[in-house]
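retry 2 of 3: previous attempt timed out while embedding zinc ion. Reduced batch size to 1 and resubmitted. Inputs unchanged:
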Amino acid sequence: MKPLLSSAPAALAFVLAAAFPLPVAAQDAAHAVRPMPINDHLVAFYQGRPDQAAVKPGPRQWPDLGAIFVGVATYAIHDGDTALVYDSFTDPVSAQWVRDWLVKAGVRRFILVNSHWHLDHIGGNVVYADSMRIATEATRAKLAMKREAIEAGTEEGPPEIRPLALPDLGVTSDTTMMVGKVRVLLRPIAIHSADGLVIELPDDQLLLAGDTLEDTATFVAEPESIPQQYRNLGAMRGWGFTKILPNHGNPAVIAAGGYGLGLIDATRAYIRALVEHSHDADFQKQPLESFVAGAIKHGDVSLWWPYRDAHANNLAVVAKAWKDKPVPAFEPAP
Ligand SMILES: [Zn+2]
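retry 2 succeeded.
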């Protein structure tokens, strides 16, 4: 996800958060990391997702809005003494918890891969300062450009990420790697953000989706490119995987092995409907439920409370980007 900068309550929360920064600890109730083994060489690490009633009113910071409230997963592909870690949570304490867990499991060599540049995916990168760090070249360049602001806590407000360990290897095309005996395919794709990098485990028919797919609904960070994202989602759907593990999703579904291809269909239908309704007079009042009812009924997604705020933000950014543009024709879903 990405924090909800454009909604007024969130903007106010950022002002308040600047005045009253909150401490972050990996093992308080809100930040406890839960390991969820998926198979003998893949483990999910899940953090956050409190019930709405458990969240006290008060200042919100970007990790709360972008990751903790919706819930956030990172992943490790491991075999023998080597692990590839996919994203580093919002902060070094949480990332260190993952590294320590893997060390206890016998891992000595680490590779970090970042899914994209958003802060809730790179906050703990410094824990892998001694390791190879891979992202798309677009992510590497973007983070290098934004490094000063991110380290100062001015990119999305506090907390700062300091020091930020940049990816040191940028890929620009599909790249196969071996993690021990596990074949791993790194695939750049412009969905959610132009700099995205997803991971396929072809022998498991699994996709680690980063933020390209979310349950309840995707967070629209780049509304202008929705038609291209829609096409890219259709292409990704045909790659051959049958299960999907996103960074923001329902922990019960992740622990049970992931989502089916319906999560892609739900995401395509959602972003297409956003653009197609963007000229409606009441567009910015249309509730999340009216966009995802079909997908919920079909069992592709479930309704999780913070996505109402994410949806409100999506309506605002899509309305702004598309208000003076004709609605394009979308190809039929595959
Ligand atoms: Zn994101």
